[in-house]
Fold DsrE2-like domain-containing protein.
Amino acid sequence: MEEKIRQLEQKIEELESRLTHVQESLPQDQLSMVVFSGDLDKMLASFIIATGAAAMYERVVMFLTFWGTTAMRDPGKDIQKSDFMAKMFGMMLPKGAGKLQLSKMNMAGLGTSMIKGLMKKKGVMSLEQLMKTAADFGVEIVICEMSMDLMGLKMEEFIDYPNISVGGVAKFLQEAGQSRVSLFI
């Protein structure tokens, strides 16, 4: 009888250990999002989803890479760059959320102006307002370190955003690996 009790206790310990392992590997209450596009419509969708998700999840992490980084550039900051390619990217890339264009029907900027006017008329928040709301809701933004390096971007040229950091693909994979939901825009 003592042997059976000892075996039963051993099984219970094994099950508790397995349960602990399962609980530790469950996704966290968070959303992770890669934002690759720097198009106005896609950036609007990203921040609409992020602010909506902030009401549902404990954490929302946006990983901005390549063209997605341009929305975070501060048009009021003029950062001098010594590298020729960094200067070229600095001149060619949109400088901030207000300079992004539509991915479709841009029509030399007319489409972008039309959609911004329509959004204002219908009471839809602008991208800048959505970004501020996201910041107020605690949405975290990770800027891709490799993209910054390739395009010659520096942290000091980004807007003042309370939850912004720099990270690589490992940071995103870590966040996505523990997220309940992961998106790519």
Summary: Helices lie at 2-25, 40-56, 84-92, 110-121, 127-136, 145-151, 169-177. Residues 170 and 176 are 10 Å apart (CA to CA). The chain has a mean pLDDT of 92. The chain is about 50% helix and 15% strand.
